[in-house]
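User: Can you model how zinc ion sits in this protein?
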Amino acid sequence: MRDNNWLESTFETIYEKLIPEIERENEITIRFGKFWKNKFGQISLQKDGSSQILINSFFRNKEIPEYIIHTTIAHELIHYMHGFQSPREQQFRYPHQGNIVNKELKKRGFGQLLELEKNWVRTIWWPTHKSLSSQRKSHMIFTD
Ligand SMILES: [Zn+2]
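Assistant: Here's the modeled complex, given as structure tokens:
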């Protein structure tokens, strides 16, 4: 089941695969966030000094391939590494300038997954989002 525990262990796997040499200078927490339409994930620095990653709650559904969760976590971790929403020294002025996230992901062996993600987003995400949203709505109507 894709719950927050599953998400945490997936996160650890991706961290070790992607940025094993990057020391964690604070606690990084991860959990499922809201049912976003246009956002896959986000990272934010919390008041207690930890960094929190949130993943789109639609991704709990098995119809979303696991590699989408992997690329989403990897994307947020590159922001962390670049010093955005993390205690690390900020390396760039803006988090997405000059395609820096994808360049870093490619350098670290995630290029093929990025291609898969791109195709999936182009062809499958919107219809899937639409059907999951309406399932969710009717489910809420019947259970409330
Ligand atoms: Zn980003």
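A couple of observations from the model: The chain has one domain: 4-143. The mean pLDDT is 95.
User: Helpful, thanks.
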